Fold each of these.
Amino acid sequence: MVLRQLKKQIKHWFPAPVAQAHCDGPCGVYDPAAARIYTEAVVSMTRKILDLQPPADQNPQAMATYLNTMSRFIQIKEEQAQKAKEEILILWTDYFKPQHLEQFPDLHDMFWKAAKLCSSCKVEVNLQHAEELMTAVQGIHQVFWATKNRTNVPWYKAS
Amino acid sequence: MVQSQLGCLPLKGVPIVDCNIWQLAMWCCRRRQRWQVQGRSMLPTLHPGDQVLVHPDAYQDTAPEVGDIVLAQHPYRCELRLVKRIISIADDCYFLQGDNFCESTDSRTFQAIPGDLILGKVISFF
């Protein structure tokens, strides 16, 4: 009884780190569309950051508005690039199997470069890298659906 | 032999025991680590939210064995820690699988892992 109470208090006061009994569920539902949507957001926010102009005068209110807007754009770009990276890594590590690697020998290189581009898009404000990320996600889309023998899934963008 | 309650095949291994005062004392001395299980892939042995004690030095003198439940580092996502059971060993690589292998992402996806990615042995519940 005392031991049980002691463990209860320890659990309450000292939260344990998480170890994954990792599971994607039995549904087997994967779709690179999620990565595509996040990537589109990264491209869009990169453009908005590059287009946003600081106020010409020294008006404090205008400068505050500019800084606030810029901060929000940067935060969203950061978040969306991270989510794109997570979606890409889930496809890479959970969906794709060794037999797919035999079918597409450059699979690891493709995903590694895509994940690296996500990092670049977080670190930089670089439209070229954002668009390269979109191209990489398009490549993943094509490979993904090819592994399912579905050639009728079109590549499209929402924006 | 433990029979899965989820309609899958029988699982090899023994149920892990509850934490006793000795293991608690070892945790207090930082000789054990406490981890919380997240996910369903180790059902029915470990449930989501269960806390377990891990012995990080369990394999200093002896090698991991088939049937051991281990804490491991994901081979491609180094920040991720996994709880899985060792199913087979070949060429110093360990094939990990969830007990609830109908719902587990494990070595069937990311292949067998080298021994240095095994971070400890799950020895008891907490």
Amino acid sequence: MEVKLKFLGRLGNEKPYSIELEEGTDLKGLLKIMEDKYSFGIMTTIRESVFLVNKSKIELNTVLKDGDEVMILSVLGGG
Amino acid sequence: MLYGYAGKMLFVDLSSGKIEEKDVTKELAENFIGGYGFGAKILYEMMPAGADPLGPENVLGFTTGPVSASRAFFGGRFTIVHKSPVTGGWNDANSGGYFGPELKKAGYDALFVSGISEKPVYIYINDGKVEIRDASHLWGMNTKEVWEALKEETKEPRLRISAIGTAGERLSLISCPINDGHRAPGRGGGGAVMGSKKLKAIAVRGTKEIAVADSEKITEINKKVSASLKVSELGKAFGTYGTGVGTAASALSGDSPVKNWGGVGLVDYGEEEAQKLAGATLDRYKVKKYNCANCPLGCGAVYKVDDGRWPLEETERPEYETAASFGSTCLCSEEDAVLMCNELCNLYGLDSISAGMTIAWAMECYEAGLLTREDLDGIDLTWGNGEAMVEILHKMGKGEGCGAVLTNGTVYAAKHWGVGEEFLQTASGIELPMHDPKFAPGLARTYKYDPTPGRHTKGGAGFPQMMSTDPSKYIYEGTGELDVQITANTEVMNASSICMFNGFVAPPEAQNEYLTAITGVDYTDEKKAFNTGMRIYFMRHAFNLREGFKPADFDIAPRSIGNPPQEEGPLKGITVDEELLSKNFFETAKIDPESGKPDIEYLKEIGHLDELIEDLYGVTELA
């Protein structure tokens, strides 16, 4: 199955892209796969992000579905 | 020898014209650090209870801390203090730029202004020489015009000023002074206090060096902070796009309020709209970076807007708070309008948080039919209508038509028109800032019960939660310890005049190491630092107690704590247990939840609060 990843906030410069996942992969599994692509620092930012699918927040054990668009919102304070 | 201080405070009485200097004593410095620590102590001593916030008895302080004008990084901030005409209680608000360090280099750790002048004046401080000068010719000018005029008049091209625009002159309750053209201690009505005193500006020029205890150590800490900054993802993000780097993400994650705190980002605002105000999108207008005094990060930027309806030759990058208040809160994604609103707040001297929130409140009233087009001088104030927002803001800045009402904020406007009380999004009368307690629940306690209510810059458990998605932040048991610890540390931070962003990017110990190296007093002693922070907290708290405020007098708008909870979006179903958070805080800080009085034994343990103990418990208890 394929899910699309979109980034906003601190990682806003990262262009959206699609990723092929095995059926039944949850958010935790997706993060594990993303570790190959990103540095430890960026992964820390990603792990601290809010993840939304279909306008709702998803948790680490949420199973992803084909065609899901995962929005990765790296949160900030201050300002 | 007091290291880290100019050593003198300046007192100016505008009624009599009397100018007086007082030494900063070792006791004051060690027990209250500086900034609003000094401010809370001095105002408690100088002001009677029940003083009219816009009368001669209100004392307006401009205060710096030990980190100002030292070589330590992040020392660009200063804090104004006064009784607030908005809440009727204690007020402090801080600002960056260069004004604070300049005041200190001119010879003063703090300036306290009392009285009311008969005619408009400005206070001119040049390396220890102080004059009250006529400002009749400056009255009516915007803040940038005043700066230019005073540079010319004083023949000091490096002059720094903090000035009110026309909003403060007209005693707008959401007005503030602006320093360096675009930096603002925005919140709580400081502009109205200046205006009531007929004080158009403070102009300073200073060249003195401030002696520090251990200069080599400061260099060493600076190196450590630089190294930390280089590898900080957050530092890179803020340094590149400023605080607005998170504007789009926050509008969708639930961090930012949407549609006067009643909406959901992805539902009511939308991803595309949110992206239009993202830091990276707006930065196509960036001309150059702007760093406050001695800041290695530089979250500011100068913009040139050469397209859209309001081209601006030179303007400043809006802060996140400003972009969110005029953006998601008003459902506006018209970037030229948001940039223009930011510029107008700087020129008229308006608090951009309260200004955006006031427009959002009026939009909701207009939609509900509670305010008519006639009430709003014919302006069609629909959600997201940037043109209408700019028009209304001009009216607020000039105090014209409906703007004469709206320029006093939402509580005043709701009373004036007798409508929309149910749409007020305030904490004890001041509009809430742009971080939602449903996202960072600890903010509910801070917004409601901090002695300066409704601030995102005050300490508490909500602080780290703003950058966390860990679900444990919604566990409400046992939060008191962390809430009080962070509060005490934030009191030290603010009193030192060190920027909050030091804490975001530097090693956690850097703040108190800087303070120690600068003053020679050991703030790395955790107990000492904690007690000093709590002492400052209790001094601010005492100001409110003396005014007669009890915990039951403080309130927070129900939408902000999920009452009722949202039905969709990332914050769906969340109601913050604000009562338990507050109970935990009061228990740990040993504050009686009914009377608001801190426990006498605890005050004695914190120490150096005799005056407070005497006022709260009588002189016999002190012995």
